[in-house]
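Re: that chain you flagged

S.,

Sorry for the slow reply, it's been a week of failed gels. I finally had a moment to sit down with the sequence you sent. For the record, here it is as I used it:
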Amino acid sequence: MNLGIISDCIHYKTPDGRIGTENHILLRQLETLCSFYTETLICCPFEPYDASKVISVYTNEKIHFTAVPNVGGNTFKAKLKILTAFPKWLNAFKKIDRFSNIVYQRFPNNLNIPGFFFFWLKKKKVFATYTGTWNNTNPITYDLQKWLLKKYFKGPVWVYSNEPIKSERIFPGISPSYSINVWNEEELQVQRRIERIEKEGLPVFRLITVGSLIHYKNQTGIVKSCLILKNQNFAFSLTIVGDGPMREELETLIEECGLQQEVKMVGKKNFTELRELYRNHDFVVQAPFLEGFGKVPVEGFFHGVIPVINNITMAGYMTGDEERGFLFDATDENNLAETLQRIKKSIHQLPCMIINGRQFAKKQTLEEWAQDYYQTVTNYFG
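Prediction finished late last night. Pasting the structure tokens below so you have them in one place:
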């Protein structure tokens, strides 16, 4: 069986001819899923490579690529570029159709709107993931794609939802980051972490937040909460991992708040660097206003890092109603500080929460995810 994949994830060709992407997690997901198929052809946008990119490269030689333009945006000029890309999209879809027995489409994006109709008309065997917020109202193009997936898509669909789904082909899904090998590799480190907490407590709360520096990820709210903590003489540090359009604004805010000693911005990190950062922090703090499946809290579980996350969408499911993490209200700048003060009074509970989080993470591996997809798709199409 040959697999075709349609994704809007931007890829790059390195000077030595390898293909990579800055979306390290998606790369690992696709390589794990593709291990179930003979050959794979990925249709995705490419951009010119430059040395500032923090990319991971594919190692599976049975994965091939067909490039399409990277287009999109809200301006009139951007919309025109989408129209001019249609012929190239169509040629790529034809190539995927000839190559593959089955097609995996990752929604929502502009590329998969015409892709849906192309493969629907071709009566192709298809399956999909919708990575946006399934139960919320979205931009009109996203809602269109949800409607098409609900009503007319001809294969299994995985969505990020912990609410009951009344469908025989729409399934709740996750977005895994790590393999079972990573879980095993962290065992000794986690045990030492628990012993340290039991012996010393947490004299300083070492916080980390990971994600693109964009408005809805709300790193601004976390920084403002840090100022409250500092004014309360609460001992902490915060590491902000990621890059994006709000970087300068955040740097200015940190300086205005006088938090240069407590808050560090370290930019984008690759897989290995991020693992090391997790190992050296106690809590992963995420305050997004909008989130489908937050991968970062689950990554924290693997390393024994306890999530403290805004109570939206699947946050309650991830934290197990505070059996393995904590919830707060990101609309109230005081609430994160209040939550951390509450945690400080409950240090004795943290070792048990770390163990619970690790057990949860063991069921959220790349292998479990890919096996579920492959088996479900195989059973669905017989």
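What I noticed first: The first strand starts at residue 2 and ends at 6.

Talk soon,
D.
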